[in-house]
Design brief:
The structure is a homodimer of 686-residue chains.
Chain A lengths: L1 H5 L9 H6 L2 H6 L2 H8 L8 H14 L3 H10 L2 H7 L3 H29 L5 H17 L7 E2 L2 H15 L2 H6 L10 H27 L11 H24 L12 H16 L2 H23 L1 H4 L5 H16 L1 H5 L22 H30 L5 H15 L8 E2 L1 H9 L6 H17 L8 H11 L1 H5 L1 H10 L1 H16 L2 H18 L6 E6 L6 E3 L12 E6 L8 H11 L28 E5 L8 H16 L3 E5 L3 H9 L2 H4 L5 E2 L2 H14 L6
Parallel strand pairs in A: 5-6, 6-7, 7-8
Antiparallel strand pairs in A: 1-2, 3-4, 3-5
Chain lengths: 686, 686
C-alpha cells in the first residue's frame, strides 16, 4: 500500500487510495458482466429469417400508390429537373453549354471513333445517343457522356479479337488484306454493338442489385494509376495515324508495349508519310499553344474557343484544296454516311468471347464516370447516387447499342467544358444532342477530306491531363507509401501488360493492401499518465508510470487470422517470455539490455479498444494465451471490449473456457483491481 | 448550470460541478497539443535512408565469427537435434516410427506415383529423397514429407499440358497412341523434374527473402475449402483405375468436372473391367473396415497395423497367381526399375510453360505443409519457423529434382502416423529413408503384378479425412458468415473450375473479405454512463445519458477510402442532417419519427479510438466535415486519436486547415469542455 500512497495525487483521475478502500462490490461492478447486467440490454436474438420477415412486413405496410409513383419518378431525375426548371435563370446557360459541348463532341467523336478502328462516324453516333439517354436518367448536369479515349481503345482490342478470328478471315476471300473492306467493318460493328449491349446490361444489373457501393473499391490511387497507364496505350495507338504508317497488329502478351514500339520504329523508318507527319506536328503544336493561351486568358475572353473544331475546319479545307489524299497518299477520313442510323437489334454472335471484355469495359467506364460525377458534385454540392448513375450508364449503353453505338463513358475534358461554360441542368445534354443531330443529318459529308493526322493530334493533345497524373506518384510517395505502391503496381501492369490485366491486378493489389495494412500494427506497453485514468504508450509518452507486477498492453489493430501469429510472437516478447533458443556455439554476444525482473509479473492487461472485430482464430488465440498465462501464474485481463468482440468471444465460448471475470469495462478498473490484489500479497510489492 | 447540477453524482466519475468550476488552464491541458507538450516526446524525424543506415550499422557492429557460425548452424536444425540427442529416450521411438512411416510410404508412394501418370516407382523416389533432405533442414520431427495426393494431381496436369504439345506428339511417329511408350514417359519425367526444381527454387527464394510470413494469408477456411475441393479432383482421377477404364483426356475449362463425369460414365458403360472393379470394391471395403477397427481398438493393441501394405501384398499375390493381367486384362503396375536413380541435371526445356504451374504448386505445397507443421507444433509445444520450413521444402524439392523426383509436400495421414507411433526427433526421417532405400534396391520387382485398382482403393480411402472437412462448412456457417463464404467460394471454384483457378480466386476472396469486413461498421451515438467518464452506445446501454446540444459519435472501424462514403452518409444521418429530397408527387407518408430539435446541436464529438489508421481520403473527409459543420455553427471535436492517426492528420495539414484545439485526449474532456462552453450561453440550455 505504501507504494501507491507515495504517488502524487492526480487532478481528475480516480484516487487510488479512495478506490482501494472501497468495498469489493463497487469494484466488481466494473467487471464487464456486472456492468452489462446493470446498464446494458440483451439484444433480442432473432434469427435471420425472422429479421427478414419483420423487415419485409415493415416495408410492405408503408407502400402506397403515391410512394410507388415517387420511387418510379425518382429513377427519372429529368422529371424533377423539369418541375423545378427556371427558364430565366437556367435556359441561357444550358443552351450555351449545350452548343459548346456539341462543338467539342464533333472532333472528339470522330477522333475516338477512328481509335476503335471503326469509321469515324460511329464515334459521332456515340456522341449523340448516350447523351440523350443520360439526360433522362442521369443525376449530374455537368457530366458529358459519349466517346472516351480509354474505352474506345478497349473496344478496339475487344472487336479486334473477334474480327481476326480464322472463321471470319476465311470468309473474306481468304486474304487478310481484304479485311479493310466494308464487310470487315460490318463484323467489327456487330461486335461493337454487342459489346455496348453487354456493357449496358452488366451496368443495369449492377444497378438493380444495388451494387453501386462496390465503386468505393475503385480508390483514387488505383484510378489515377490506371488511367495514366491507359493513356500510354492511347498515345501509342495514335502514332501510326500521326506518321501515316500502318498500325502493327497481332501483338499480345507480356511486354506488349515495348514490342509494339520496336515494330512502330521499324515502320516509321521504312514507310513514313512526311506530309502526314508534318500535319500532325503542326496540329499538335498549334493546338497545344492555343489551349495554353486559351487557359491563360480565359478570365478575360470569358468564352471557351472551339479550337479543335477550328483545327478540323482548317485541316479539311487545306486537305481538300491541296488534294493531299490523292496526290500525297495522306490518310483521310473518307466517305461518311449521312443521317441517323436506323434502329437494329445487336447481334449475339460472339457473346461468349465478348463477355470478359464487356465486364472489364463496364468496370472501367463506370469507375471513371462515377468518380468524375462525384468530383463535380462535390464542387457544386449536389447529390450523386451511385446506383442511379449506374442505371443511367446502363440505359445509355443498352439503348444506344440498338443505334450502332459502341460503349460510352463520361469524358473528363468535355465535362470540364460543360461545367465551365455555364451548364446548370440536365437539359444541357438535350441541346448538345440537338446540335449533333443537325451535324449528323446535314454536315457529315463535309469532313470527307479531313486528314487522320489531325484527329491523332486532337487525341494526343487531349491526353495531356491524363499524363499530368504522373505527378500523383510523387504526391502519394510523400503521403502514403502503400497508396504509392498501389499506384505504381497498377500503372506498371497496365503499361507492361494490358489495360484489362492491369485492372484486375490493380484491384487485387488494393484489396491486398487493405490486408497488409493490418499485418504489423504497433504493439505498445502502456503506462499511467500522472495519476489519471489515462493510459498512454511508454514509447510516445516516456513520463508515464508502470506498476510493478502489472503490464498493460495495446495492440493497435483488430485481431484476426492474418495478424494472429504476429500478435502471439510480439505479445510474449513484450512480456519478456520470448522463447529464445540458446546459441549452439558459445558466443560473446554483448548483452545490451537489462531484464528488470526484480518483481514477478502477475497481471497482464490487454486493452482491446483497437479491436473493431475479432475472428475465430483471434478468439482461440486469446483463450490459448489466457490458459498458458494461468499455468505460469499470471492473470490476463481484457478491457474496453466492444460489443462485436464480446459477441464473437461469446460464440467461441470464451467465458466458459476462461474465468468469467476476465473482462473489465476500462483499463483503469482492471489496473486498480490488479493493484489492490497485489497489495494483499505484500511479498511481490517492493 | 442548473441542468447539470440536477444530474445525480456518480460514484467514481468526475463531478461536473467540480470540473466546471476549475480553472480554464486545467481544462486546456487536456487538449491534445498541450497534453503532448506536457507528457509526450517528439519522435526524431529520421529519413528512411538514415534509418536504414543506422539499422545496418547497428547490425554490422554486433557480427562476430561465432555469431555467423551460429546463424549458419541454426539453418541446419539437425545439428541441434544431434547435439541434444538422448539415445536411451529417443532412439527406440524414432526407429519404430521410421519403420512404420516407411511401410506407409511404400503403398502411398506407388499410388500417388500413378496419380501423376508416371510409373509408380517415381512416387517411391519422392518418398525417399525429400525425406532425407527434410531431416537435415526441417524443424518438425512429426511432419512426413513425400508424396501427397493434391500435389501429385497438380503435377499430372502440369506435365500433361507439356507432353501433349503438338511438337512432342509429332516426334512420336505421328500417332498419339504411341505416347504411352517409354519416350513419352521420358518427356513427362523431364517435365516433372523441371517442375520440382522450379518449385524448389521458388520456395528457396521465398525463404531467402524471408517471406514466410505470407503464409498467414492462407487462412484456415481457405485451406479447408481448397483441400476439400481438390479431394474431389483426386477422387475423380481414381475412377478410371478403379473401373479399369481409360481416363478421359484433354478436358479443360469451366465445369470441367461435370464434363469429365459424363465421359467417365459413358466409358464405364462401354469398357468396364469387372475384375478391376471387384478388386477395387473389395479393397476399399476391407481397407475402410480395417481402418475403422484399427482406430477403435488402437488403445488396446497399441500398434499401427500396416493395413495398406497388407492389402498390397495380398493384391500382388492374388494377381500374380491368378494371372489377372494376362487373362483378364486387369491393369497392373508392370515392370519397375530396381535400384536408386543416378543423379542427373533436370532439363530446362519447358520452363516457360511450367513456371505458372510451379508457382501454384509451390504455394499449395507450402501452405499445406506449413499449416500441418504448425498444427503438430501446437500439440507438442515446439517452435516451427515459417522461413526455416520454407528453406527445408525448397531444399527438398531442389535437391530431389536431380534424382528424378516430382514435387513433394507434407502428408496429413503419414504425419499423423509418424506422430502417433512415437517419433521424437528429426532422425525418424533417416530411419524411414533407410527402409525405403532397401525396398528400392531389392524389393521393387516383387510389386510387378500389383493391380492398379488396389492403388486406387488406397488413394480413395485416404481421401476420407479430406472429405470429412465438408463438416467445416457447417462449423463456419455457425460461427462466421464471412469465413463460411470464403470456404464456399474456394470449394466451389476448385470443384467447378480447377485447382489453380480455385487457389487464386480463393486468395483474392480472402483479401476481399478483409476489405468487406471494414465496409459497414457500426456507427454509434454514445452517452455517459451514470456520472462516470465512461461513454457507451445508446443502443446497447439504453440508460446512458446524452447532453442536450452535444452528440458523441463512434465509428467502429478505421476510416479510409473504402468506407469513407459510408461514414459521411451515416455521420450526417446520425446528427439529423440527412439531405432528404422531397417527394415529387405529394404523398401521405406516415411520420413515424419525431425530430427532437428543441435544443440546437452545437458540439459533435467523434471518438476516434477505433481508428487504427486513417488514410488520405479519410483525413480529407474529416477536414471537409469540420469545415462544413463550422459553417452551420457546430464545433467538431476529435478524441482519443492514436499516434498513427495524428501523424496522418499532421501530414494532411489537418491542424492548419482546422483549428488547433480540435483534438482532445479523452471523450470526457471534450464533453466537459463542451458542457462548460454551452453553460456560458444560457439560451441554448433549457
Amino acid at each position: 500500500m505504501t507504494h501507491l500512497q507515495t504517488r502524487k495525487e492526480g487532478d481528475e483521475g480516480i484516487s487510488n487510495v479512495e478506490f482501494c478502500t472501497r468495498s469489493d462490490e463497487t469494484r466488481r461492478n466494473r467487471r464487464l458482466q456486472s456492468f452489462v447486467d446493470c446498464y446494458g440490454v440483451e439484444k433480442p436474438s432473432l434469427s435471420t429469417f425472422e429479421q427478414t420477415k419483420r423487415y419485409t412486413k415493415k416495408k410492405c405496410s408503408s407502400v402506397t400508390f403515391e410512394c410507388c409513383i415517387n420511387i418510379l419518378l425518382k429513377r427519372i431525375p429529368l422529371f424533377r429537373c423539369l418541375k423545378t426548371y427556371n427558364l430565366r435563370k437556367d435556359l441561357f446557360g444550358d443552351i450555351i453549354a449545350g452548343i459548346t459541348v456539341a462543338i467539342m463532341h464533333i472532333p472528339q467523336g470522330m477522333a475516338y471513333g477512328t481509335l476503335t478502328t471503326l469509321p469515324p462516324v460511329y464515334g459521332l453516333y456515340v456522341s449523340f445517343f448516350p447523351v440523350i439517354i443520360y439526360m433522362i436518367f442521369g443525376t449530374s448536369p455537368h457530366l458529358s457522356l459519349g466517346t472516351f479515349a480509354i474505352i474506345s481503345l478497349m473496344t478496339a482490342q475487344a472487336i479486334d479479337s473477334v474480327s481476326f478470328e480464322p472463321s471470319n478471315i476465311v470468309t473474306q476471300n481468304g486474304t487478310i488484306a481484304n479485311l479493310t473492306g466494308s464487310s470487315s467493318v460490318d463484323i467489327k460493328l456487330h461486335a461493337a454493338t454487342t459489346l455496348a449491349l453487354l456493357v449496358g446490361l452488366i451496368q443495369l444489373s449492377l444497378s438493380f442489385l444495388r451494387l453501386g457501393f462496390l465503386t468505393v473499391y475503385l480508390t483514387e490511387p488505383f484510378i489515377s494509376g490506371f488511367t495514366t497507364g491507359a493513356a500510354t496505350h492511347v498515345f501509342t495507338s495514335q502514332i501510326p495515324s500521326a506518321f501515316g504508317i500502318r498500325s502493327p497488329r497481332g501483338i499480345n502478351g507480356a511486354f506488349k508495349l515495348p514490342r509494339i514500339y520496336v515494330k512502330l520504329i521499324q515502320s516509321i523508318f521504312s514507310h513514313i508519310n512526311w506530309i502526314s507527319t508534318a500535319i500532325a506536328a503542326v496540329s499538335i503544336v498549334t493546338l497545344y499553344i492555343a489551349k495554353y493561351l486559351n487557359d491563360r486568358y480565359k478570365s478575360k475572353i470569358r468564352i471557351v474557343l472551339p479550337l479543335e473544331l477550328v483545327l478540323i475546319v482548317i485541316g479539311t479545307t487545306v486537305s481538300h484544296f491541296l488534294q493531299l489524299h490523292s496526290k500525297y497518299a495522306v490518310a483521310v477520313v473518307g466517305q461518311i454516311k449521312r443521317g441517323l442510323p436506323a434502329p437494329s437489334l445487336p447481334s449475339f454472335d460472339h457473346t461468349d468471347k465478348l463477355l470478359v471484355p464487356a465486364i472489364t469495359i463496364a468496370a472501367v467506364s463506370l469507375s471513371i464516370s462515377i468518380s468524375m460525377a462525384k468530383m463535380l458534385s462535390r464542387k457544386h454540392t449536389y447529390k450523386v447516387s451511385s446506383n442511379q448513375e449506374l442505371l443511367a450508364y446502363g440505359m445509355a449503353n443498352t439503348v444506344s447499342s440498338f443505334f450502332q453505338c459502341y460503349p460510352s463513358a463520361g469524358s473528363l475534358s468535355r465535362s470540364a467544358v460543360q461545367e465551365g461554360s455555364g451548364g446548370r441542368t440536365l437539359l444541357v445534354g438535350g441541346f448538345s444532342s440537338l446540335v449533333l443531330g443537325c451535324v449528323l443529318v446535314a454536315l457529315t459529308p463535309l469532313f470527307q477530306s479531313l486528314p487522320m493526322a489531325c484527329l491523332a493530334a486532337i487525341i494526343i493533345v487531349n491526353l495531356k491531363g491524363l499524363f499530368l497524373q504522373l505527378k500523383d506518384f510523387m504526391l502519394y510517395f510523400r503521403i502514403s507509401k502503400l497508396e504509392c505502391i498501389l499506384w505504381t503496381i497498377t500503372f506498371v501492369t497496365v503499361v507492361l501488360f494490358d489495360v484489362d490485366i492491369g485492372l484486375y491486378v490493380g484491384l487485387s493489389t488494393s484489396f491486398f493492401i487493405n490486408t497488409v495494412r493490418t499485418q504489423r500494427p504497433r504493439f505498445f506497453v502502456l503506462g499511467q499518465v500522472d495519476n489519471t485514468g489515462i493510459y498512454k504508450s511508454t514509447t510516445n509518452f516516456p513520463s508515464v508510470q508502470q506498476y510493478p507486477g502489472i503490464k498493460i498492453l495495446r495492440f493497435d489493430e483488430s485481431l484476426y487470422a492474418c495478424n494472429a501469429p504476429f500478435f502471439k510472437r510480439k505479445f510474449y516478447e513484450l512480456i519478456g517470455m520470448e522463447t529464445t533458443e540458446e546459441p549452439i556455439v558459445s558466443c560473446r554476444r554483448p548483452e545490451t539490455f537489462d531484464t528488470k525482473t526484480d518483481v514477478l509479473l502477475k497481471y497482464i492487461i490487454l486493452e482491446c479498444s483497437p479491436f473493431n472485430y475479432i475472428d475465430t482464430v483471434g478468439a482461440k488465440l486469446l483463450i490459448q494465451i489466457f490458459n498458458d498465462l494461468k499455468k505460469r501464474g499470471i492473470q490476463l485481463y481484457l478491457t474496453e471490449c466492444r460489443y462485436e468482440v464480446r459477441h464473437t468471444l461469446d460464440i467461441m465460448k470464451f467465458y466458459e473456457k476462461t474465468e468469467l471475470h476476465t473482462i473489465y469495462v476500462t483499463t483503469h478498473d482492471a489496473v486498480m483491481t490488479a493493484v489492490a490484489a497485489l497489495n494483499q500479497i505484500p511479498t511481490t510489492n517492493n
